[in-house]
């Protein structure tokens, strides 16, 4: 290498400084020349420094849809991090974002379109894109729009625009599969605050956080945004440290961070919120006029709240003492500004809708909506095309109805995009039977999951890092924001973006969509942002706008804030939780919970996430039953004992993890495992808790109440080895040298 | 010349494991399969430990990320018979992989258990090898490996600064774990630069009496500093004792 070349290359290799560039075809410039730099001061470890670049893109919609950057070296994606410019995350990311490269280079990714040898066999044969598209177009032509359904996970915002256009020309029905807890949350936010986007707590400016069960630091709706704000909440303001109380049945990974944890009976969150409101009312702690919308939403009045929901009465059912309930109420008014959030388990009881209305409604009493340190409402997406239609998100009850329609033949053709209803819905819903009965099933999944196994044809979607798109983060950072997704590498396999396939199918049906590709749809929609004449990008022309958009990774307008309405009519009536199973026969309550790493199982195919220890138990790669120490002592169980976990629905055998923080009377089990497909890293591990839970619905929301089943435990006398991190190194607190040191807050 | 160090604020840490995965991605750490866990031979240059305190219902789970402490007087260094582990002039405790003969003396002498031996040849399916970081050597069977404060990033930044004829800027370089950490619990930088984020954070935390180091009394002078977890239920006496 000549000296001049050396200087050129060295000057452009930047790791510390983030180099953004318009994407274009980034594979074109490779391979770059690698070279070694002899560094006698350091080690001769064969460092090979070439030219790398960081490209801005976006996280998947179900991971928050926020801005990311990806390091690309010689046409290969190497590392994902948060976009330092993107509002809310400001350069931060999480384990799930880091693992996006493993989706891209996953050894079990489908290499191209496939046709099933026999439906359900799991065996597929490669076919060409042309013949696959012709076949699917013919299927749609034969079925007609009214006899076809498109089932998706939550799509990206630009995909939503393409799907809507596809629906307009084909008449196909669109159904979105989201975790039940989010279905309830969206419903409550819409009915309580009058907005279709999720709100975000302004933790960075809050003094007190009261959380009813939401796993807001490990998954949930916006883990990176909320985690970053949590850091500021705790130690970002010199002399002021935010206080966090957690109310929930389990000391979860998130609850472990709380200053105080209040263990409760699952499903009593709403009743506790009413008792808190009772204290606030009877003690005159908040102005009385703030109660009107709260009463309206819950169909209550002052007399009922005072008489029926006193701390003493609620204490008998909730597992808390009246004094603890009063402590919670007092903390809300003593530490201003305070904010209340709720979700996960709280939304998954038979009274989940009531729980969230009563708990999130406390923000009305605190007057915290859209206040610094309160609950910030997010605006509607800046373009109507980017809005995801709420009515497409189905509840458990609606899924059962849809699958009945498929089984009866009223719907003959099912298209499935990245959704996995066979795994993600309880067997009683009938997803597998319906798909077997359907005349045609077409999957767009990049992997052979349980649902794709029942498909006739698979048209694999590109990985998230290979495609174009726009994402409106939901929840946003409190103002309008859009992240742009651009391919950071050339497609690694012969896959096509789902939007491209819909556009090509529409063309084959003789009803072309307004765009020629997903890329064009993305850019056309992006340019509509420019037409709004506001936001962070000042550009002289369209080209400059697009280049700047891609370089920055998004568009945002801090002036565009959300506003809502307060309820004036009843949303839900107070309701106590109920549990399936006789308490004498099934003495324990079963509390399933999503894993921080692999969630509800949608990420179980990514080995980094499978290998990431669950923070509380430190278990990896499997399922287990968490049993309280006291329960374990009574039953003579220790960690590693295999037990029979029996519910009215099913029986499974699993190893026990004795949890020192477990609540007696409760048995917990993680979601995420129990896959029979989805690749080598997911298959054949543990059990899917959805096979255990009774098909109990939240009667108000129509969603699955997966935290409403009783169970019992029987010893098998066998033992199993639990793969876990604890014990890997001899780590224990030493009296004289404490590993984790704790101090009281300074005065 | 910089003196690299790290500050980990336990009051910000939420135990999410973003640091663990970011480190694996950056440093070509092999996938810790279920078998590897069963063998008790998982490799994690930074790991997340969880400690229990108290009993139900007054029970606490405490998280602490543990990377190499980069001790100034590192006990792992003098025991290496082939000088494969040594100290850089910038304070990093380094491992020369192609010099290591796998005696594992360094691992035995490390009180923090942050040195890892490659009992097997690292394996990835061919397609996943596309993700491997070309700046970092893949370690072979029979050698030790450990956290090196992402030294390849430091070297790269220093060379860039040299080419541009300037000194390294304050906080120009950071480690993969610190970059990912969503709560900013991990901060990396030059301890000798009074303007660096680590120096300023340490100065403020010293005033609040929050700074400590793991197993500090051993006298190895770690360059990883911890800031104490704050707990409203901790008694003033306990705070003083710690």
Automatic annotation (TrEMBL), chain B:
Keywords: 4Fe-4S, Iron, Iron-sulfur, Metal-binding
GO molecular function annotations of the record: 4 iron, 4 sulfur cluster binding; metal ion binding
Keyword Ribosomal protein in annotation: no
SUPFAM superfamilies: 4Fe-4S ferredoxins
Name this polypeptide is given: 4Fe-4S dicluster domain-containing protein
Domain 4Fe-4S ferredoxin-type span(s) in chain numbering: 4-34
Organismal lineage: Bacteria, Pseudomonadati, Thermomicrobiota, Thermomicrobia, Thermomicrobiales
PANTHER family linked: PROTEIN NRFC, PROTEIN NRFC HOMOLOG
CDD domains per UniProt: PsrB (cd10551)
Pfam family, one: Fer4_2
């Amino acid at each position: 290498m000549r000296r001049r070349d050396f200087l050129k290359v060295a000057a452009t290799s930047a790791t510390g400084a983030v180099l953004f560039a318009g994407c274009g075809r980034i594979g074109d410039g490779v391979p770059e020349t690698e070279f070694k730099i002899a560094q006698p001061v350091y080690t001769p470890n064969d460092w090979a420094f070439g030219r790398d670049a960081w490209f801005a893109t976006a996280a998947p919609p179900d991971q928050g849809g926020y801005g990311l950057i990806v390091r690309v070296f010689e046409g290969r994606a190497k590392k994902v991090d948060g976009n330092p410019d993107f509002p809310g995350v400001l350069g931060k990311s999480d384990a799930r974002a880091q693992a996006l490269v493993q989706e891209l280079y996953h050894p079990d990714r489908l290499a191209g379109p496939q046709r099933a040898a026999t439906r359900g066999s799991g065996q597929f044969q490669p076919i060409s894109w042309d013949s696959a598209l012709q076949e699917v177009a013919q299927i749609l032509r034969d079925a007609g729009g009214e006899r076809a359904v498109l089932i998706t996970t939550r799509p990206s915002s630009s995909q939503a625009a393409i799907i809507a256009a596809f629906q307009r020309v084909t008449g196909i029905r669109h159904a979105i599969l989201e975790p039940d807890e989010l279905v309830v949350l969206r419903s409550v936010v819409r009915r309580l605050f009058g907005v279709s986007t999720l709100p975000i707590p302004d933790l960075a400016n809050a003094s007190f956080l009261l959380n009813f069960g939401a796993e807001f630091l490990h998954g949930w709706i916006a883990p990176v945004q909320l985690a970053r704000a949590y850091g500021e909440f705790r130690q970002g303001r010199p002399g002021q440290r935010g206080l966090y109380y957690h109310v929930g049945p389990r000391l979860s990974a998130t609850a472990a961070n709380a200053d105080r944890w209040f263990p409760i009976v699952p499903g009593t969150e709403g009743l506790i919120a009413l008792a808190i409101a009772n204290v606030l009312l009877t003690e005159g702690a908040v102005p009385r006029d703030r109660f009107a919308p709260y009463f309206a939403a819950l169909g209550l009045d002052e007399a009922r709240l005072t008489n029926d929901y006193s701390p003493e009465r609620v204490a008998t059912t909730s597992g808390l003492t009246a004094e603890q309930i009063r402590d919670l109420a007092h903390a809300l008014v003593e530490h201003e500004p305070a904010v209340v959030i709720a979700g996960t388990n709280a939304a998954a009881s038979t009274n989940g809708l009531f729980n969230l209305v009563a708990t999130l409604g406390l923000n009305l009493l605190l007057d915290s909506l859209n206040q610094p340190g309160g609950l910030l409402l997010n605006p509607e997406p800046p373009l109507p095309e980017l809005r995801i239609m709420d009515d497409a998100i189905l509840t458990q009850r609606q899924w059962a109805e849809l699958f009945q329609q498929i089984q009866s033949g009223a719907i003959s053709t099912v298209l499935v995009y990245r959704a996995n209803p066979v795994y993600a819905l309880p067997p009683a819903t009938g997803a597998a039977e319906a798909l077997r009965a359907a005349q045609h099933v077409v999957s767009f999944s990049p992997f052979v999951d349980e649902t794709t196994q029942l498909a006739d044809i698979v048209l694999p979607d590109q990985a998230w890092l290979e495609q174009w798109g726009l994402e409106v983060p939901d929840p946003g950072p409190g103002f309008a924001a859009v992240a742009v997704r651009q391919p950071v590498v050339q497609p690694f396999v012969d896959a096509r973006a789902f939007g491209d396939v819909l556009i090509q199918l529409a063309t084959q049906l003789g009803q072309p969509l307004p765009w020629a590709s997903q890329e064009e749809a993305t850019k056309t929609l992006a340019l509509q942002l420019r037409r709004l004449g506001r936001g962070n990008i000042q550009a002289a022309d369209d080209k400059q706008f697009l280049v700047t958009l891609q370089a920055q990774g998004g568009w945002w307008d801090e002036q565009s804030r959300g506003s809502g309405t307060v309820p004036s009519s009843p949303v839900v009536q107070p309701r106590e939780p109920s549990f399936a199973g006789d308490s004498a026969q099934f003495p324990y309550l079963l509390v399933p919970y999503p894993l921080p790493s692999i969630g509800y199982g949608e990420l179980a195919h990514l080995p980094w996430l499978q290998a990431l220890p669950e923070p509380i138990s430190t278990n990896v790669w499997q399922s287990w039953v968490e049993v309280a120490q006291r329960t374990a002592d009574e039953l003579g169980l220790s960690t590693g004992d295999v037990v029979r976990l029996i519910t009215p629905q099913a029986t499974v055998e699993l190893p026990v993890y004795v949890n020192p923080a477990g609540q007696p009377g409760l048995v917990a089990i993680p979601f995420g495992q129990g896959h029979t497909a989805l690749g080598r890293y997911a298959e054949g591990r543990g059990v899917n808790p959805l096979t255990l839970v009774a098909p109990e619905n939240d009667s108000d929301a129509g969603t699955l109440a997966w935290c409403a089943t009783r169970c019992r435990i029987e010893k098998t006398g066998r033992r199993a080895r639990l793969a876990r991190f604890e014990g890997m190194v001899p780590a224990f607190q030493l009296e004289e040298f404490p590993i984790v040191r704790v101090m009281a807050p300074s005065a | 010349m910089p003196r690299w160090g790290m500050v980990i604020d336990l009051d910000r840490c939420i135990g999410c494991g973003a640091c663990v995965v970011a480190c694996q991605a950056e440093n070509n750490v092999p996938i810790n399969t279920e078998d590897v866990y069963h063998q008790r031979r998982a490799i994690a240059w930074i790991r997340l430990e969880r400690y229990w305190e108290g009993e139900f219902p007054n029970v606490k789970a405490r998280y602490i990320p543990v990377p190499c402490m980069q001790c100034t007087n590192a006990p792992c260094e003098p025991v290496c018979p082939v000088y494969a582990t040594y100290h850089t002039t910038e304070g990093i405790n380094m491992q020369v992989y192609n010099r290591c003969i796998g005696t594992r003396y360094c691992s035995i002498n490390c009180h923090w258990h942050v040195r890892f031996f490659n009992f097997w040849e690292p394996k990835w399916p061919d397609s996943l090898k596309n993700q491997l970081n070309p700046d970092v050597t893949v370690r072979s069977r029979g050698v030790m490996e450990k956290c090196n404060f992402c030294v390849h990033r430091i070297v790269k930044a220093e060379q860039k600064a040299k080419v541009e004829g300037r000194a390294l800027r304050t906080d120009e370089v950071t480690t993969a774990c610190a970059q990912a950490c969503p709560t900013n619990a991990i901060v990396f930088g030059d301890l000798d630069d009074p303007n660096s984020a680590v120096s300023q954070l340490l100065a403020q935390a010293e005033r609040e009496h929050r700074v400590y180091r793991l197993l500090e009394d051993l006298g190895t002078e770690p360059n990883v500093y911890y800031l104490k977890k704050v707990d409203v239920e901790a008694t003033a006496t306990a705070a003083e004792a710690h």
